[in-house]
Amino acid sequence: MSIYDQRYYLRNLNLLRDNVPSFEQYPFNLDAIRELSELSFHPKVTYLVGENGSGKSTLMEAIAVALGFNAEGGTMNFSFETAATHSELYNYLRIARGARRPRDGFFFRAESYYNLATSIDEMDRAGGFGRPIIDSYGGKSLHQQSHGESFLATFLHRFGGNGLYILDEPEAALSPSRQLAMLARMHDLIRDNSQFVIATHSPILLAYPDSIIYQLSSDGIQETTWEETDHYIITKQFLNNRDRMLEKLLVDEDDE
Ligand SMILES: Nc1ncnc2c1ncn2[C@@H]1O[C@H](COP(=O)(O)OP(=O)(O)O)[C@@H](O)[C@H]1O
Ligand SMILES: [Mg+2]
To answer: 239: Cβ–Cβ under 8 A, 6 or more apart, which residues?
Structure first.
């Protein structure tokens, strides 16, 4: 095995199609899942992109749960659950891991970050864990910071390298300049043997060069390039032709 191979925590996943009860019902009826048999992970960054509702979160959550993360996010130690809404998909995934095990791990989902913040506050109030948990997130309750600040605090302080980080739309909280800061931090963590799986709509976050991008669409899941994504094309078109695009978008009824 080459040195390169040893950097993997996740190598690939297989959908155990023969075990799937029906491709007519959620989550197996999603276009992205119905056609899925195998997906390879990049040793550094694997991106999932696709329209709203294309199944990114469903797949991310199933990967995270199959690896032992709580469906609502956090480290592997968090077992809180406010509503058991995660799909059964994780039961039908076989995930091939690399030779090394991650020493750190985090499943971030913008959708339930609030619950994670509450859970940390509650555990620290209850005590009994030695050092307050919030210390490793930068020391200040995540509820007392803005969404973006608290996420960045988690990312800067809590993520320690040698880790597997599964992030679902982390940009939801971040300004463009903080997204750039996040790319730089990702680079540090990757040099410290970390691996990322990221679902994102942000052309900035999507720009890490040493990566693979998978597009979820009605055609299933396909590899694509940064320049071929809607995120890149539409953003670029809009920034270059704002007036012309606005003219088309904001048509007054009288003009029609
Ligand atoms: N528990 C559920 N039962 C049925 N359909 C669901 C459930 N959760 C999500 N869906 C549907 O699955 C689709 C994919 O959702 P999701 O994975 O959240 O998409 P994305 O993260 O790409 O926006 C959506 O159309 C959504 O309505
Ligand atoms: Mg989603």
So the answer is: none
Query: Is the Cβ atom of 56 under 6 angstroms away from ligand 1?
Result: yes
Q: How far is the CA of 27 from the centre of ligand 1 (A)?
A: 8
| CA–CA–CA angle 98, 100, 103 (5° rounding) | 125
Atom of ligand 1 nearest to the CA of 51: 22
Distance, CA 169 to ligand 2 centroid (Å)? 7
Atom index in ligand 1 nearest the CA of residue 55 equals 17
- Ligand 1, atom 17, residue with closest C-alpha: 55
Is pLDDT at 54 greater than 70 in this prediction?
yes
Tens digit of each residue's pLDDT (9 = 90 or more) over 174-196: 889 989 989 999 999 999 999 99
Q: Pick the residue with more confidence: 5 or 238?
A: 238
Nearest to 166 by CA among 70, 32, 255, 52: 70
Fold of the 3-224 domain: Rossmann fold (3.40.50)
Predicted confidence band of residue 41 (pLDDT cuts 50, 70, 90): very high
